[in-house]
Amino acid sequence: MTGFGSSRYLDKKVEVYCEIKTVNHRFLEISTRPNDLNSELDIFVRDLASKKMKRGSVDIRFKLKFPTESKYIVNSLSLKNLLKTIKGIKQIKSDNVSFKDIKDMPGIIGVEQKTNIKPSIVKKVFMESLVKLLEDRLSEGAKIEKLFLQKINNIEKNALKILTANRKLTKKRYDNLNNKILNLSITLDKNRLEQEVALLVLKHDVAEEIERINFHSKSLKEELTSKKASGKKIDFILQELFRETSTLSVKLDEPLYKKVALDMKLSVEEMREQAQNIE
User: Fold this and answer.
1) 109 and 74 Cβ atoms separated by less than 8 Å
2) Predicted TM-score of the model (pTM)
């Protein structure tokens, strides 16, 4: 699911900014930038994000500005060797050698910089960003739920329309088959003929498919409105619903009702594509 959240801490010497973006993904993938967060912070960020989210590509970016301390290290042995070498050169007056003459010499003076990062501030800013992100994702989830419920209601209405017409369609199919056989001008046992025709007609009866479609629709509604709704379970129910609507569209041969069944199948397919991103 898509979402965005950000937070900032700022004073005279410290600035911490965090933004989190998520986009649709079937699995959970977390990336943090910059990549040089210390191990404690990186573990904290990843663990908390994975507890709060189950699906999505999560991009977490930090902008950190903390005071730095510089530490200068003099390599005494290298300096001693340098001065010894200089004394051995007659053209150079070693008594006049100053700091500015040797400060840029490789291996003589080293500088170590240490940034005083305060993990508590980084964690606080990250958690504030995460809360805003989850609120944003929750808002999107509510929109998806509303859209799904509209589609499910349409599917149920169309299922009722087909079920209401099922008896009429069955009788029409029975009469058509009987007429076609009678027009063949062949002698057949009447009882056997009726049995065979009845079997053919039953193969196209859609009452069972409609019953299963209604069952899956009800299950889907219950899962969507549940506080512990699972994207994977929704995906599974839609898979079963897609199978039933596919069978329904194959069994129906009346153009008007076949189109209705195909519309139902299309609605389920659209929900399946979206459901892969629901947590």
Assistant:
1) yes
2) 0.64
Question: Is the residue at 117 inside a domain?
Answer: no
- Please report whether residue 86 resides in a domain: yes
94 and 181: one domain?
no
Cβ neighbours of residue 210 closer than 8 Å, sequence gap 6 or more: 159, 162, 163, 166, 248
pLDDT computed for residue 78 by the predictor: 79
Q: Which residues of the chain have pLDDT under 50?
A: none
75 contacts 107 by C-beta, under 8 angstroms: yes
The residue among 268, 265, 240 whose CA lies nearest residue 250 is 265
Residue 80 near residue 105 (C-beta atoms within 8 A) = no
Range of the domain at 148: 137-275
DSSP H helical ranges for 97-118: 99-102
Residue 93 within any structural domain of the chain: yes
74 shares a domain with 199: no
- Under a CB-based contact definition with an 8 Å cutoff, are residues 111 and 70 in contact? yes
